[in-house]
UniProtKB/TrEMBL annotation:
The lineage of its organism: Eukaryota, Fungi, Dikarya, Ascomycota, Saccharomycotina. This is ECM33-like protein. It comes from the Eukaryota. Residues 358-398 have a biased composition (Low complexity). Its main location: membrane. Residues 1-19 form the signal peptide. Transmembrane segments: none annotated. It is a lipid-anchor; GPI-anchor. It is found in: Cell membrane; Secreted, Cell wall. GO terms for cellular component: cell surface; fungal-type cell wall; plasma membrane; side of membrane. Keywords: Cell membrane, Cell wall, Glycoprotein, GPI-anchor, Lipoprotein, Membrane, Secreted, Signal. Residues 358-406 are annotated as: Disordered.
C-alpha cells in the first residue's frame, strides 16, 4: 500500500478547492477528477464494479448513494454538500486513495459497510454525524476532527496505522483500540471531557501525544521511538509498566488530577525528561529504573519524593523545583557522583536551594557569558535572592546547603534546552 504523509486540514481543503467540474460521463474511467452534483450523476457510474479516477461529490444533494461500485481506483471526496443528510456506498471494498468527508453540515449517516481498505480517511467538520460505518482492515492515516461522533469504534479493528489523530470531537467518550503499531503519530486532543482510551495491544509507536483525556491504558506499550507526551489531561493515573524506552522526549505536564505515574520498566529517555505542574503528583516513584536521559531533566511541582535512584547519565542540565517538603540530598549525591553531566544543576524546595555551575572550563564560561542576556541573569538572581531569604527565616534545618549562598546559576544555556524541549512538544 502506498505510504502517504498525513494531510493537514488546510491541505485537504486546498486540494478540494481546486477540484475541476467535469461532468460525469457514462464511463467507468473518470479521468483524474470528476464532480457529481446530483444522484443522476452517480447513477451513471453505479453499474461499474471499478471506477478509475478521483470522484468528488458536492452541491445540493439531499441523500446520495453509489450503488454497486466495489472499488475506487482513486479518491472519493464528499464536501460542502450542505443538504446531504445521508450517504451510502455499501458495496465499495477498496479505495486506493483517500476517503474524505468534509464540511457536511447535516450529514447524519455515512455507510461504507464493505470498506476494508483505504489509504487515508479524513472526517473533518461533520457536526451532525451520528454513524460512520466500515469494515476497515487496513488504513494508513486516520484523521477525525470536529465531528459529532460519539464513537470511533469503526477503527477499532485496525492493527497498524501511520497516523491516528482524533481531535475536537466533543461527544467522543471512549475508544478501545486493537492497534499494535503506529508508525508515525498517535494523537488525541480536545475531545469529550471524559474520554476513556484503551490501547492495550499497542507495542510500538513512533510518537504519542495525549491531551484532554480522562483515562488511558497502554498495557503492552514497550517502545516509543520518538516523543511521548501527556499534557493537560484529567488522568488520575498513568500506568505504562511495560514501557522500556522513549527515543526522544518524555513529558508529563499540567495533568491536574494525576496522582500516580508508574513507568516502572523505563530505562532510557533519548531526549528531555519533563514532569511539570501536575498538582496532585506528590510521590514521583515510578521512574526508579531510568538510567539515561539524553537531554535535560526538569521536574517541577508540589512533590515530596522523587526516586531517580538508577540514574547514571543525564546529558543536559537538571532542574528540580518543588514547592513541597522535598529533600534535595539524594539528587545532590547523584550530581556529585557525576550522573548529571549537563552544564547546570539546580535543586530548590520550600526551604533550601542548591545551584551548581558544572561547566567552569574557560570555553564553557566564555560561551555562557557571551550568550547571557541582562534579563535572564537578572531573573535568576532575583529567584535565588528570594529563595535564600526564605531559607534564612526558616528553621535551622540540617538540609540548609552551601548552595543557598548567593551562587548564581548560569541559567541561560540550561533554560534554552528546557525551552526548546517544551516548545517542541506544544
Ligand atoms: C458544473 O458544470 C455544469 C455545466 O458546465 C454546471 O451546470 C454545474 O452547475 C457545475 N457544477 C458546479 C458544482 O460548479
Ligand atoms: C487523483 O488525484 C491525485 C492527486 O490528488 C492524483 O495523483 C491521481 O493520479 C488521481 N487519480 C487518478 C486515477 O487520476
Ligand atoms: C459551498 O457550497 C455553497 C453553495 O452550496 C457555495 O456558495 C460555497 O462557495 C461553497 N464553498 C466552498 C468552500 O466550496
Ligand atoms: C465523567 O465520568 C465519570 C464516571 O466515569 C462521571 O462520574 C463524571 O460525572 C463524568 N464527567 C463528565 C463531565 O461527564
Ligand atoms: C513524530 O516524530 C517525528 C520524528 O520521528 C517528528 O518529526 C514529528 O514531528 C513527530 N510528530 C509529532 C506530532 O510529535
Ligand atoms: C498497571 O498495569 C499492570 C498490568 O499492565 C497491572 O498489573 C498493575 O496492577 C497496574 N497498576 C496500577 C497502579 O494500575
Ligand atoms: C525513530 O526515530 C528516529 C528519530 O529519533 C527516526 O530517525 C527513525 O526513523 C524512527 N524509526 C522509525 C522506525 O520510525
Ligand atoms: C490546558 O487547557 C486549558 C483549557 O482547556 C488551556 O487554557 C491551557 O493553555 C492548556 N495548557 C497547556 C499546557 O496546554
Ligand atoms: C520489562 O521489559 C522487558 C523487556 O524489555 C520485559 O522482558 C519485562 O517483562 C518487563 N518487565 C516488567 C515488570 O514489565
Ligand atoms: C508550569 O506552570 C507555571 C506557572 O503556571 C508556568 O510558568 C510554567 O511554564 C509551567 N511549566 C510547564 C513546563 O508548562
Ligand atoms: C503542596 O502540597 C501540600 C500537601 O502535600 C499542601 O499542604 C500545600 O498547600 C501544597 N502547596 C502548593 C503550593 O500547592
Ligand atoms: C518534611 O519531611 C520530612 C521527612 O521526609 C519530615 O521529617 C519533616 O517533618 C517534614 N517537614 C515538614 C515541614 O513537613
Amino acid at each position: 500500500m502506498q505510504f502517504k504523509k498525513a494531510l493537514t486540514v488546510s491541505a485537504v481543503l486546498g486540494a478540494s478547492a481546486l477540484a475541476a467540474n467535469s461532468s460525469i460521463a457514462s464511463s467507468c474511467s473518470l479521468g483524474s477528477q470528476a464532480t457529481a452534483t446530483a444522484q443522476a450523476d452517480l447513477d451513471k457510474i453505479s453499474g461499474c464494479s471499478t471506477i478509475v479516477g478521483n470522484l468528488t461529490i458536492t452541491g445540493d444533494l439531499g441523500s446520495a448513494a453509489l450503488a454497486s461500485v466495489q472499488e475506487i481506483d482513486g479518491s472519493l471526496t464528499i464536501y460542502n454538500a450542505t443538504s446531504l443528510s445521508s450517504f451510502s456506498a455499501d458495496s465499495v471494498k477498496k479505495i486506493t486513495g483517500d476517503l474524505n468527508l468534509k464540511q457536511l453540515t447535516i450529514l447524519t449517516s455515512a455507510s461504507f459497510g464493505s470498506l476494508q481498505e483505504v489509504d487515508s480517511i479524513n472526517l473533518i467538520t461533520l457536526p451532525a454525524i451520528a454513524t460512520f460505518s466500515t469494515d476497515l482492515q487496513n488504513a494508513n492515516n486516520i484523521i477525525v476532527s470536529d465531528t459529532a461522533l460519539e464513537s470511533v469504534e469503526g477503527f477499532s479493528t485496525l492493527k497498524k496505522v501511520s497516523v491516528f489523530n482524533i481531535n475536537n470531537n466533543k461527544y467522543l467518550t471512549s475508544f478501545q483500540s486493537s492497534l499494535q503499531s503506529v508508525s508515525d503519530s498517535l494523537q488525541f486532543s480536545s475531545n469529550g471531557d471524559n474520554t476513556t482510551l484503551a490501547f492495550d495491544n499497542l507495542v510500538w509507536a513512533n510518537n504519542i501525544t495525549l491531551r484532554d483525556v480522562n483515562s488511558v491504558s497502554f498495557g503492552s506499550l514497550q517502545t516509543v521511538n520518538a516523543s511521548l507526551g501527556f499534557i493537560n489531561n484529567t488522568l488520575p493515573t498513568l500506568n505504562l509498566t511495560q514501557l522500556n524506552k522513549v527515543g526522544q522526549s518524555l513529558s508529563i505536564v499540567s495533568n491536574d488530577e494525576l496522582s500516580k505515574a508508574a513507568f516502572n520498566n523505563l530505562t532510557a529517555i533519548g531526549g528531555g525528561f519533563i514532569i511539570a505542574n501536575n498538582t496532585q503528583l506528590k510521590d514521583i516513584d515510578g521512574f526508579s529504573k531510568v538510567q539515561t536521559v539524553g537531554g535535560a531533566v526538569d521536574v517541577t511541582g508540589n512533590f515530596s519524593t522523587l526516586d531517580l535512584s538508577s540514574l547514571k547519565s543525564v546529558r543536559g542540565g537538571a532542574n528540580f523545583d518543588s514547592t513541597g517538603n522535598f529533600s534535595c540530598n539524594a539528587l545532590k549525591k547523584l550530581q556529585s557522583n557525576g550522573a548529571i553531566q549537563g552544564d547546570s544543576f539546580v535543586c530548590k524546595n520550600g526551604i533550601t536551594s542548591t545551584s551548581v555551575q558544572l561547566s567552569s572550563t574557560s570555553s564553557g564560561s566564555s560561551k555562557s557569558s557571551a550568550t547571557s542576556s541582562a534579563s535572564s541573569s537578572g531573573d535568576s538572581s532575583n529567584a535565588q535572592a528570594s529563595v535564600s531569604a526564605s531559607s534564612n527565616s526558616s528553621s535551622s534545618s540540617s538540609k540548609k546547603s552551601k548552595g543557598a549562598a548567593p551562587e548564581l546559576v548560569p541559567a541561560t544555556s540550561f533554560m534554552g534546552v528546557i525551552a526548546a524541549v517544551a516548545v517542541a512538544l506544544l
